Amino acid sequence: MALSFKQIGNTFAAEVRDIDLHAGIDQSIVDQIEHGLATYGVLIFRDQNLDDDSQQAFIQQFGPPFETKLKEISAGHPHFYDIGNVDPEGKPIAEDSVRGMYMLANLLWHTDGSQAQPPIRLTALHARVLPPVPPPTEYADMRGAWDALPAELRREIDELAVEHSVYWSRQKIGMSMKDFSEETLKTRQPVVHPLVRTNKLTGRKSLYLASHASHVIGWPVEKGRALIEELTEHATQPEFVYAHQWRDRDLVMWDDSWTMHRSTPYDGPHPRKLRWCGVRELEAV
Ligand SMILES: [Fe+2]
C-alpha cells in the first residue's frame, strides 16, 4: 500500500491519508513513514483509535522507545508521558508542582530529548482528551531556517558543538537544582551535540536547537548563548512555523533532528491529555 502525503505547512508538515495505525503496520509502511519524516518533518495521522498497547506497538517499529524515567511526569507506563493539564488520575495539575513546571517548560521552543545522549530521534503524541478549543502545538522547520541563513554565517557555525542541559532549560522557568531528585541529578548530566545536523535520508542540513541548548563549546558562555538565542529567533519566525490545530484522536509524529516545537498556553477549565512517546537515536549524536 502506498501512503499519500499532503503538505499542509508552509515549508514542511504533511497529513498522511488512509491509514489505520491501530491495525498494525508492516515494514513497507514503516519505510514510507520514515521517508515522510525525512521529507516533511511533522506527520499528522487523523482519527487514530489508539490505546496504550497499540501506540506502544506503533512506536517501537521505529527503534528503541525512550524510557520515561522522570517519575515527576510519568503516565504510569515505562514509555509514556502525559502532556496536558491533568495528572494520570485526572486531577488538575497544580502550576507550582514539578509536573506543572514541566508543562510550563513545554511552552519554550524545544527539541525532545536533546538533553540526552543519544538524544530522541522521533516523537509521537496522541490526543486522548481535548478541550472544546484545544491550544495548538507549534512546530519550527530548522532545515528551512538553515537554508535561509547567509552563506557566510553558515560557514562560521557549521562545525560548532553545543552543550545541552535540562537544568539550563528549567532555570529559564524558575526551577533550581533543589527541584530535582538526587537520582535525576545523577542520571541527567549535560551532553554535547553538533549545532548543525545532516539528515541521513535526504543529505540536507538543519540547525539543531532546543531550550536545553546552553552554550557553544570553546566559546565564552555569553557569546554562545547570544548565538543560540539569535538562531532560535530566526528559526521560529512565522515563515518557518506550522501550528497544529488538534482534533480528537490525532496522532502527530515528528522528527526531532530537524524540527523544534512548543505548546501554547491553555488555562481553560476542561481537561487536556495527550500521550507522549519517543524513540531514541541508536548512536550518540
Ligand atoms: Fe516536547
Description:
With 285 residues, this protein is α+β, with helices and mostly antiparallel strands. It has a single domain (4-280), classed as Clavaminate synthase-like (Double-stranded beta-helix, 4-Layer Sandwich). 25% of the residues lie in helices and 27% in strands. The strands form four sheets. An eight-stranded mixed beta sheet has the order 1-2-3-14-6-16-5-4, covered by helices on one side. A three-stranded antiparallel beta sheet has the order 13-7-15. The longest helix has 15 residues, at 221-235. The protein is globular, with a radius of gyration of 18 Å. Bound molecules: fe (ii) ion (FE2).
Task: Walk me through the topology.
Blueprint: E1 4-7, E2 14-17, H1 27-40, E3 42-45, H2 52-59, E4 74-77, E5 80-84, H3 98-105, E6 120-129, E7 137-141, H4 142-147, H5 151-157, E8 161-164, H6 166-171, H7 182-187, E9 191-194, E10 196-198, E11 205-207, E12 213-216, H8 221-235, E13 241-244, E14 251-255, E15 259-263, E16 273-280
Parallel strand pairs: 2-3
Antiparallel strand pairs: 1-2, 3-14, 4-5, 5-16, 6-14, 6-16, 7-13, 7-15, 8-9, 8-12, 10-11
Fe (ii) ion (FE2) binds at residues 106, 110, 112, 261.
